[in-house]
Design a protein that fits this description.
It is globular and about 95 Å long. The strands form 7 sheets. It has a 6-stranded mixed sheet with strand order 10-16-15-14-11-13, sandwiched between helices. A 5-stranded parallel sheet has the order 1-3-4-6-9. Helix 3 crosses helix 12 and helix 16 runs parallel beside helix 17. It is of the alpha/beta class and about 775 residues long. It has 4 domains: about 270 residues, Alpha-Beta Barrel (TIM Barrel), CATH 3.20.20; about 240 residues, Rossmann fold (3-Layer(aba) Sandwich), CATH 3.40.50; about 110 residues, Sandwich (Immunoglobulin-like); about 70 residues, no CATH class. Strand 18 and strand 19 form a beta hairpin. Helix content is about 30%, strand content about 20%. InterPro entries: Cellulose_deg_GH3, Fn3-like, GH, Glyco_hydro_3_AS, Glyco_hydro_3_C, Glyco_hydro_3_C_sf, Glyco_hydro_3_N, Glyco_hydro_3_N_sf. GO terms for molecular function: beta-glucosidase activity. One of its GO terms (biological process) is carbohydrate metabolic process.
C-alpha cells in the first residue's frame, strides 16, 4: 500500500460528501479498476488505489504480469488447505483462525480485499471448481464461510463472498443461465450467502459470470438490490468477477458498483455518455462511487489498525503449523477395518504412489498459491518411522507420461513390507477452474496398480488426493481409506500425523460420496445445453436426494471415523421463538482423546410442502478426553427451520411436530425426539380458483360449502361410477368456480363469490 493509503489523506469526511465534490468523469472512473488488481485512485481528492487479489486459501499477489488463471508468478504465501478440506473440519473456530492468518498475510502484502471465500453449493461432483467450495449444504457453507470472513476482516482486510449466485459449474460459465425455481434458489443456492452476509457483513460480494433465470447476475437488480441489500441488509460493495460485466450501463443501477479488472477507460466512457444523454441517472453513479470510497476508507482504516504502519508482518512458521493443523483436521477417515490405523512406528511400510513424493496440494486456476514451504508425505512418514522402516516406489506418473515401467517395482515392494500406504489421486489436469470433470474415475493406471498391490499385500491403506469426490470401486477390497483432499502446503505432514496417530482424525464429509456418477442428483441436468442448465432436481441436492430416495451411497454426508468411539445419551429438545435448543450428552467411550462432530437434523413428515426427510440445521465440534462425558448444547435458529413459501414470496416456519435427529452422519442417527413448533399459519385468500378441499378447510366457508354439496355428492355416489371414497378424492382438487353450473349443484357462481368474499373479509 502507498503512504497515501496508510495516512488516508482526504478520507476523513463521509463518503457521500467526498463523492459530492467529484466530477462525473471522476465518479465514473472510480467504478472501474485501474489495472488488473487495483482500483482507481483520485489524487486531488486524496482517494488512494487499493489492491484486491485472489484467495481464497492464500494470498495470490502477483509480482509481474497479471492474469486471472494463475499463470503469472506471485509472492510466497501460506497455502492453506482449500475449502474442500476446510469444509470437512466442521469447525468454525478453526476456520476463523485460518481467516485471521489470511488477513495477517494480506495486510502484510498491502492487500485491501482478499477474494474469498467461495460458498457455492456442490450441486454436481463434476464441477471443476468444487475444491474451492465448502459443502453441498447451505448451512455448513454459511456457518463456515462466515467464520472465514470474520477472521479475515478482524485484521482490517475485506472479504469478497463469491460467486453470487448459482454458479455451480465451469462449463459455459461466462454466459450459461442457471434456471432455478424459487424454493431451491432461496433454500439451497442463496441460503449460504445469506448466512454469511447477515452474520459477517463481508466488505464485498462478488457477482458471478453466469445468468440466473436468464438475467446476467452482473445486471440483475432483483439479485443485487432486492435480495442482497433490501432483504439481507448487505452494507458493502458488489464487485464483478474478473470479466463478468455484460453491459456496464445496465449493471451499475442494478447494483454492480465496481467492475474489475480495468477496461482501459471504456466502461467509464460509456457511463459518462449515458449520464450526458439521460439514459443513466447520475444518482446511480453517485451510489456506486460512494460505495467504492467507503471500501477504500475501510481498507485505509484496516491498514492502520493493527500496526500503525504498512510494515506489517506475519510468522511464516506459525502459519505453516496452522496449515498443518487444518489439513489434519480436514482429512476424513472413510474406512479402518481391524484398526489397521494408526500405524506403529516399528511397522515396515511400503509407500507407493507419486503423490507421496510430489504432492498435489491445491487446485488449478485463479486460486493457485506460491507456497512459503511445501511438505511431502514421504519425508514426514520417514520422520515418524525411520529410514530403515520406509521404502518408496512411484508406481505411476502424474503428468500423463508413460509410467508402465513403474508398476512392477511398486508391486514387488508392496509384497516385502508389513503395510502398504498407497497414495492415489487426481492429476491437476483433471480438475480446475475453467472446465468441469468428465467422470468421477481415478486414472485407469492407478486403479490397475491398486489391484496388483492389494493382491501382493492385502494390508493396503489408500490415501487420496483430490479436490472433488471420486468413485471408490475398491472400497470393499482394502482395509482402510483416508480422504486427504487437497491439503495445502503442509498436507503431506498432516497425512503422516493422521497415519501415525499424532492426530486423531475428526474430519467429516461435507458432501456425499456416491457409488457412481449416474446416482447423483444433477446427472440428467448437467451441464445443460443451448446456454441453459435446468436445476431439475430442485431441493434435492446432495444427501437430500439420496435420503429421499433411500438410495445407496458409498459414504454418506457427515461420515468420518475416529481412532476412538463416541456414545450419545440424554437428548432433550426445547422450542421457543428463537428456535430449538438441543441438548445431548456425548461420551468418548474409547481409549484416546478425540473430536466428535455432533450433527443435528430436522424433518417434518406432515409438512404441507415438499421436503427432504432430514436437513442438517446445526452442528458442534466437541473435543473429549478418553472417558470424558459432556453435555453439548446446540442452537437451531428459528429462521433455519423456515421454507420459502412461493404463495406469499417469503420465509415461513411451518407449525407442526418436527423430528429432531442427532447423530454422526445423515445415515448414522443415534438419538431422536419430536418437538412441537408453533410456527405460522399461512392463509391464502380464497378465490374461484380455490379447490373444494381448500374451501372445506376454511373455518367459515367450509361448513356452508360441504352442506350445500351434500345432495350432489350423494347423487353421484349412487351411480356406482366411483369406488368408495373415489368421488371425494376427485372432487377435492376441483376448482370451486368450475363446479357452479354443473347439473345438480345447488349453488350459483354469485353465491360462491359471496361466500368467498365473506370468508376473506372476516379473516383479513
Amino acid at each position: 500500500m502507498t503512504d497515501t493509503l496508510n495516512t488516508g489523506t482526504g478520507l476523513e469526511a463521509p463518503a457521500a460528501d467526498i463523492v459530492a465534490g467529484l466530477t462525473v468523469e471522476e465518479k465514473a472512473s472510480l467504478t472501474s479498476g485501474a489495472s488488473f488488481w487495483t482500483t482507481q485512485g483520485i489524487e486531488r481528492a486524496g482517494i488512494p488505489a487499493i489492491v484486491l487479489t485472489d484467495g481464497p486459501h492464500g494470498v495470490r499477489l502477483q509480482k509481474g504480469s497479471a492474469d486471472h488463471l494463475g499463470i503469472g508468478d506471485s509472492v510466497p504465501a501460506t497455502c492453506f488447505p482449500p475449502a474442500v478440506a476446510l469444509g470437512s473440519t466442521f469447525d468454525p473456530e478453526l476456520l476463523e483462525r485460518v481467516g485471521t492468518a489470511l488477513g495477517e498475510e494480506a495486510r502484510a502484502e498491502g492487500v485491501g480485499v482478499l477474494l474469498g471465500p467461495g460458498v457455492n453449493i456442490k450441486r454436481s461432483p463434476l464441477c471443476g471448481r468444487n475444491f474451492e467450495y465448502l459443502s453441498e449444504d447451505p448451512i455448513i457453507s454459511g456457518v463456515l464461510g462466515a467464520a472465514l470472513v470474520n477472521g479475515l476482516q478482524s485484521q482490517g482486510v475485506g472479504g469478497s463472498l463469491k460467486h453470487f449466485a448459482a454458479n455451480n459449474q465451469e462449463h459455459d460459465r461466462m454466459s450459461s443461465s442457471s434456471d432455478v425455481d424459487p424454493r431451491p434458489l432461496r433454500e439451497i443456492y442463496l441460503r449460504g450467502f445469506q448466512r454469511v452476509v447477515e452474520d459477517a457483513q463481508p466488505w464485498t460480494v462478488m457477482c458471478s459470470y453466469n445468468r440466473l433465470n436468464g438475467v446476467y447476475t452482473s445486471e440483475d437488480p432483483w439479485l443485487l438490490n432486492t435480495v442482497l441489500r433490501d432483504d439481507w441488509g448487505f452494507e458493502g460493495l458488489v464487485v464483478s468477477d474478473w470479466g463478468a460485466v455484460n453491459d456496464r450501463v445496465v449493471g451499475l443501477p442494478a447494483g454492480l458498483d465496481l467492475e474489475m479488472p480495468s477496461s482501459d477507460g471504456r466502461s467509464a466512457a460509456k457511463l459518462i455518455a449515458a449520464v450526458a444523454d439521460g439514459s443513466l441517472d447520475e444518482s446511480a453513479l453517485d451510489v456506486g462511487a460512494r460505495r467504492v470510497v467507503e471500501l477504500v476508507q475501510k481498507a485505509v482504516a484496516g491498514a492502520r489498525s493493527s500496526t500503525g504502519s504498512v510494515d506489517a508482518a506475519y510468522d511464516v512458521d506459525a502459519h505453516h503449523a496452522l496449515a498443518r493443523e487444518a489439513a489434519g483436521r480436514g482429512a476424513v477417515l472413510l474406512k479402518n477395518d481391524d484398526a489397521i490405523l494408526p500405524l506403529d512406528a516399528s511397522t515396515s511400510v511400503a509407500v507407493i504412489g507419486a503423490f507421496a513424493e510430489k504432492p498435489r496440494y491445491q487446485g488449478a486456476g485463479s486460486s493457485l498459491i506460491n507456497p512459503t514451504k511445501l511438505d511431502n508425505a514421504l519425508d514426514a512418514i520417514t520422520e515418524y518411522a525411520g529410514q530403515d522402516n520406509v521404502a518408496f516406489a512411484a508406481g505411476f506418473t502424474t503428468d500423463g507420461s508413460d509410467g508402465a515401467a513403474l508398476a512392477a517395482p511398486a508391486v514387488e515392494l508392496a509384497a516385502s513390507k508389513d503395510v502398504v500406504v498407497l497414495f492415489l489421486g487426481l492429476p491437476g489436469s483433471y480438475e480446475s477452474e475453467g472446465f468441469d470433470r468428465e467422470d468421477l474415475h481415478l486414472p485407469a493406471e492407478q486403479l490397475a496398480l491398486l489391484e496388483s498391490v492389494v493382491a501382493a499385500n492385502p494390508r493396503t491403506v489408500v490415501v487420496l488426493a483430490n479436490g472433488g469426490v471420486v468413485e471408490l470401486p475398491f472400497a470393499d477390497d482394502v482395509p482402510a481409506i483416508l480422504e486427504g483432499w487437497l491439503g495445502g502446503q503442509a498436507g503431506g505432514s498432516a497425512i503422516a500425523d493422521v497415519l501415525y496417530g499424532a492426530v486423531n482424525p475428526s474430519g467429516r464429509l461435507a458432501e456425499t460420496i456416491p457409488v457412481k456418477l449416474a446416482d447423483t442428483p444433477a446427472y440428467l441436468n448437467f451441464p445443460g445445453d443451448f446456454g441453459h442448465v435446468r436445476y431439475g432436481e430442485g431441493l434435492f441436492v446432495g444427501y437430500r436426494w439420496y435420503d429421499a430416495r433411500d438410495a445407496e451411497v458409498r459414504y454418506p454426508f457427515g461420515h468420518g471415523l475416529s481412532y476412538t468411539t463416541f456414545g450419545y445419551s440424554d437428548l432433550s429438545v426445547a422450542a421457543d421463538a428463537a428456535g430449538l435448543t438441543v441438548r445431548v450428552t456425548v461420551t468418548n467411550t474409547g481409549d484416546r482423546a478425540g473430536r466428535e462432530v455432533v450433527q443435528v437434523y430436522t424433518g417434518l413428515a406432515a409438512s404441507g410442502v415438499q421436503r427432504a426427510p432430514r436437513e442438517i440445521k446445526a452442528f458442534a465440534n466437541v473435543a473429549l478426553e478418553a472417558g470424558e462425558s459432556r453435555q453439548v448444547e446446540i442452537a437451531v435458529r428459528n429462521e433455519d427451520l423456515a421454507y420459502w413459501d412461493i404463495r406469499v414470496d417469503r420465509w415461513i416456519v411451518e407449525p407442526g411436530a418436527y423430528s429432531v435427529e442427532v447423530g454422526a452422519s445423515s445415515r448414522d442417527i443415534r438419538l431422536s425426539a419430536v418437538v412441537e413448533v408453533e410456527g405460522e399459519q399461512v392463509r391464502i385468500p380464497l378465490s374461484l380458483e380455490s379447490s373444494i378441499a381448500e374451501l372445506a378447510a376454511d373455518p367459515i366457508a367450509g361448513p356452508i360449502v360441504m352442506q350445500a354439496m351434500g345432495s350432489f355428492a350423494s347423487g353421484m355416489a349412487d351411480t356406482d361410477i366411483f369406488d368408495e371414497g373415489g368421488l371425494d378424492k376427485m372432487m377435492a382438487s376441483f376448482p370451486i368456480g368450475k363446479l357452479a353450473g354443473f347439473p345438480g349443484v345447488p349453488v350459483t357462481p354469485e353465491q360462491i363469490q359471496q361466500l368467498i368474499d365473506l370468508s376473506n373479509s372476516q379473516q383479513a
